[in-house]
Amino acid sequence: MTTSVMGASFRPGELEVRSDGTGNLMGSRCRACGASFFPVREACAGCLSQDLETIPFSTEGVLYTYSIVRQSTPAFEVPYALGYVDFPEGVRIMGQISGIDFEDIRIGMPMELSLEPFGEDDEGHPLTGYRFRPSEVTK
Amino acid sequence: MTQVHITGVGMTRFGKHPDSDATDLGAAALLEAIADAGIDARLIESAYVGHVFQGMVMGQRILAQVGLAGLPLVNVENACSSGATAIREASLAIRAGENDVVVAVGTEHLTSQFAGALTPDPSDPEAAIGATMPGIYAMRATRYMADHGMTREQLALIPVKNKANAAQNPLAHFRKAITVEDVLESRAVADPLRLHDCSPVTDGAAAVIMMSDRAAAKYANGRGVKLAASSLRSGSVDVEPTSMTYEPLTWATALDAYEKAGIGPEDVDFAEVHDCFSIAEVLRVEGLGLFEQGSYPRAVERGEANIDGRLPVNPSGGLIGKGHPLGGTGVAQVVELVRQLRGEAGDRQIEGANIGLAHCRGGKAVGIEGAACTVQIVTR
Q: Burial of B80 by CB count in 10 Å (0-12 exposed, 13-18 middle, 19+ buried)?
């Protein structure tokens, strides 16, 4: 079972992780003007309405840009790929990229959300985070 | 409303200062500015002190060091725009008629705070997944290269230019000119950026003394230059994804400054811009309207941004060459504008300049284009 290796979300409220091993990045959608935001906001930056709903974002998007990070803080093992993915709800979200050789990453690639182990909490329990990987459909 | 006159400037050497701290550096810069203005320190009515990582009441420690404790004092944190924001707040105290003589100081002892890559605040969702400042700018460089056909070699010409300028600046962190090959062979930090594309971890401080018309008439001895505009904006939340190769925040800040100074980008003779990374200089000057979008890398190739070029950019060496002590940076940029306009810039002097512009932009939080942006315009 996938669930046996999944831990709690590394950032509850930003990443929802369900017991069946699926999950979504979460944000706000303005009921007044339709604009979407990541992460959850209290008011809409477009029209200032406070009538926002919390929504799960699509798990498929397009890679806007990327970099291979070769120097980071001690919390992260280098090198790793970092990218911005544009989602159909109109949000751009940053994440690490997995499941592809660095030299094969391209702007414009279809990407999908991938739930993956992402460190541990203060008591040593495994946490689930997210990365982006090339969409299955394009492989 | 009174104009704001800059009548005294001071700046420490930028670099590594293992034997002093942010208080020592700030005090040294402040004392130099007071001496440069040629005034009795007791004329100073209020102080604004910018820093990022130096802890509580940084400014009070500096003023206590130089005998000025007791003044109204505001400590300012606005990421890499902290020092520039201190100047802006100080200038507002004059424009409001509250004070006639004020000082802005920016200081940072960064080598004692950390080494390596700067990141957004650890609580930020993007920091939590591994965002670093070099990584964010590297991603913008990747996209700029794809959108505008900039080559890696063209990008390398920016650190080459800025370190050549720094070699002429006795207060710069780096005093050695480099080649394109040096840039391309330096250690990879975040592709496509390499070590020479990045501003260093630097200690340093700078200070400026500003006066109202009334005080300048009495004390400036004709040496003052005018702070024609000092504008500040914070980054807005994106309602939809926008191009990361253009800077609406920089343009909005610049537009406010151009309007206040009564000039346009075509009137600017030279600029000190926030080149925390090589690609950042490209994004800044295009965002400021000084060069057309997508045109700057080729303009640098033609020498247009050199000290003897059409529009010199970062004659001091910029953040890449002169160094980047976060809180000190924005104040040091204005010190450079003043010294250039006074004709005191030595081997890096720009001939015949009348209008200088300084731009700072710092910080990052999830969902916003940039955190804090300032544009200062200084005129003869």
A: buried
B346 torsion bin: left (phi>0), alpha (psi -120 to 50), beta (else): left
Q: Are B173 and B14 in contact (CB under 8 A)?
A: yes
User: Which residues of B carry out catalysis?
Assistant: 80, 324
- Tell me, yes or no, whether B236 and B220 share the same domain: no
Q: Which positions in chain B touch A16 (Cβ < 8 Å)?
A: none
Q: Sort B13 into a burial class: Cβ within 10 Å, 0-12 / 13-18 / 19+.
A: middle
Domain that holds residue A28: 12-57
Helix, coil or strand: residue A103: helix
Dist. CA B259–CA B256, nearest whole Å: 5
Residues 59-118 of chain A with CB under 8 A from chain B are 64-73, 75-76, 80, 82-84, 86, 90-92, 94-96, 107
Give the C-alpha separation, B207 to B4, whole Å: 15
Answer yes or no: do A71 and A98 share one domain. yes
pLDDT of residue A39: 94
SS3 B354: coil
Q: Nearest chain B Cα to A25, which residue?
A: B125
- The parent domain of residue B35 ranges over 5-113+202-228
Beta bridge partners of B70: none
Is A120 near chain B, with CB under 8 Å? no
Q: Do B189 and A68 touch (CB under 8 A)?
A: no
pLDDT tens for each residue of B185-233: 999 999 999 999 999 999 999 999 999 999 999 999 888 899 999 999 9
Query: Does B241 lie at the interface with A, CB-CB under 8 angstroms?
Result: yes
Q: For B201, how many CA atoms within 13 A lie in the half-sphere containing its CB?
A: 14
pLDDT band at A2 (very low <50, low <70, confident <90, very high): very low
Question: In sequence order, what are the residues at sequence separation of 6 or more whose Cβ sits closer than 8 angstroms to the Cβ of residue A101?
Answer: none
The tally of domains found in chain B comes to 2
Peptide bond preceding B312: is omega within 30 degrees of 0, i.e. cis?
A: no
The 10s digit of each residue's pLDDT in B114-131 is: 777 788 887 888 999 999
Do A50 and A74 lie in one domain? The reply is: no
The domain that holds B224 is classified in CATH as 3.40.47.10
On whether both B235 and B219 belong to a single domain, the answer is no
Structural domain includes residue B305: yes
Q: Is the ipTM of this complex over 0.90?
A: yes
Structure tokens at B87: 């100047």
Instruction: Identify the closest residue of chain A to B120 by CA–CA distance.
Output: A73
Number of domains in chain A: 2
Q: Which of B 103-142 lie inside 8 A of A, CB atoms?
A: 116-117, 119, 125-126, 128-132, 134-135, 138-142
Task: Report CB contact under 8 Å: B130, A72.
Answer: yes
The answer to whether residues B49 and B174 belong to one domain is no
A93 in the same domain as A32: no
Structure tokens at B67: 């005998």
